[in-house]
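Annotated sample (chain length 187).
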Amino acid sequence: MLAFRAELLRRWPELASMIAPWHQDLDWRPYGRTDLADRFVVLTLPFGWPATAALPVVAGAFGLDVYDPQPDSLVPPRPGAPDAGVPERITRVAGWVVEDHVVQALRQISAYIDYRYDELDEAALTGALEGTNDETADGWFEYPLAGTPALTIRLARSADGSVVMVQVDGAMDIVLAARIDTVLDLL
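Output written by the structure step:
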């Protein structure tokens, strides 16, 4: 639940004034109970909020349900549906991971696309980050993951060497993109 909450606030920072219950991810002082943020999220959205159709899809990526009190029903996620405000395909997800977590990130992304990541993949990555630099166009290491969909992973050490920048390219639906984005946020 907390990862879903963090994803909501990352994608739509304006939700900070519309989200409950209070959690330390909000800047203002709490009112009411402060121990429920890991159990549910309540959003009080203005009429016509532009990303309303995306919420069930993002929630579905976290294995959560969306309840709409107006029709008194659950709103099912509709991955790939051509809803207003929800792109059918996303072509790039970018973020960073700690260098020690690169293999873990690649294993998790591979699982999402039914690609069998194994010791041969790890061997191909041995020394691959040496000489990479995220500030130059030719300073990135590219590695294909031939799953469904096929993805290309681009890796480069940050200029200060503290983290590894990651770009995942391919034709992704919003659910896959949200899953990959979450992996990069958590690692």
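Annotation: The mean pLDDT is 81.
Annotation: The CA atoms of residues 74 and 153 lie 36 Å apart.
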